[in-house]
Fold this sequence. Notes:
binds nicotinamide-adenine-dinucleotide; elongated; 16 strands; 534 residues; alpha/beta
Amino acid sequence: MPDELDPSTGRALADGPPPATRPVGVVGAGTMGAGIAEVAARAGHEVRLLDAAAGAAPAGADGVRRRLEREVDRGRVTSADASDVLARLAVVDDVAALACCGVVVEAVAEDLDVKRTLFAALEVVVADDILLATNTSSLSVTAVAAGARRPGRFVGLHFFNPAPRMSLVEVVRGEDSDPGTVDAACELVRAWGKTPVVVTSTPGFIVNRVARPFYGEAQRLVEEGVGDPATIDAVLREAGGFPMGPFELTDLVGQDVSLSVARSVWEQTFADPRYAPTVFQQRLVDAGRLGRKSGRGVYRYDADSTAPLDSAPATEPPRPAPASLDLVVWDAEDSPFPVMRPFLDRVVAGGVELPSTVADPEGADIEASTRGIRLPGGAVLVEVDHGDWSGLGGVIELDWAHDPAGCARVLLLPSADCPSESLHAAVGACQAAGVAVSVLPGSVGGVVARTVAMLVNEAVEVVARREASAEDVDVAMVLGTGYPSGPLGWGDAVGAHRVASLVQQLGDTHPSGRYRTSPLLHRALVRGSHLRDL
Ligand code: NAD
């Protein structure tokens, strides 16, 4: 026998496979509503799907049927199971038909008045003990629930698109959400085979807030003239380990949609410069360059292909690798390549001799900032986060990679006074490791390190404000965005002091208020605690 939900909390009374409960109501049968209805029906719930537009709910249900048929064809679902799922999915045409539901999730238009009006109508017909959930992605859950008869039973259930495939659901607690409501929502999400993370109703929740710098830093790098979109995308993908670059991703999502998320978070934080949208993106939208859907965004697309036509990154031509280089270090504990050391092992495996410790003849007289690899031509190769290297006769910074032992590309950032002989030698040495090499002009934090530092700082800030737990932030960013690591775990791997130093340097270079180290980051440094344990 399937388990039942406790009607007072919506909570499962016992563990076990899909609980049969009172039906689940889903209002709005568009992209998200149809997907959520499918999720609930596949987990064993009776589902009632309602939409205000004529024909929209049957069309949503038909979409579920077609998706299930494809899964049957692929052998992932038996036709008997698919029939059972469809039998549990009923289309209804009036709010009154949701009176018997134990949970109602709305996925109607993203408009506060529309949502409030809908919930007011629902509260008239449903029982007092049910859970009411909004799938809003940008409105305040507190505001949606405000004025309701029982705001304590409201919660946000922020599914990601496509809902049947994406396992993350942000459970958003409004100002007045009862703790029991939040717990019940988490259990429901688990019963639907998804992973809940809990977050206070704040602009962007976890994912759309912490991810802001992923787009914002890349757009600023273009505005600052440091790099072109194709190279920045390739570096973040192939060195940073991100599944897509920020420019190709915003082209996919739609530059207008992406800008409206950026603008919404910025406006809701009373124009905090940390979240300011960019003129770069506004110009794209003004020009109608919305991305794939309009045939042109950052890149160009043709009708037959989803891949951009003009996204080739700048990649260095082959250069001869030097036979040997000198690694100048103080001692083994104080490596000038704390993050990228495993990459140097690949350079050595590629045939470049690199004595691991070379005592500098000048000993203590040497500038700390010249520690690194001595290159022909006189410049020094160092890792980003190196500090001020102006006037040292040429420095090349090596940007971070998420997986230095396996990355397919690295980025080198030469100072303006770097001799070309040194740059060619550095490129050749990196190519000996079997990677593609991109070169962009030196700027604080390069591309990957700058992006990662800002992601970590933002994640720390969410935890500092007690809006979500450290664990939930990392889970949300991996499941919601496909990042190769949760930002807090990533921060621990590279070292919180390096993150703090980079954000500080960025703030010194761009004193706009955007680059502020989170107070909790400082506290973690003082205490020596891991960011994941904040
Ligand atoms: P959509 O336009 O595809 O579907 C919305 C549906 O709601 C339409 O079928 C419309 O007819 C119906 N509708 C509008 N007002 C209604 C009402 N008063 N009563 C009943 N039905 C009504 O939109 P969507 O992309 O599915 O987004 C729905 C909600 O989910 C929004 O709040 C959005 O912010 C949120 N969301 C969207 C995404 C996404 O990627 N699309 C992701 C997460 C959350």
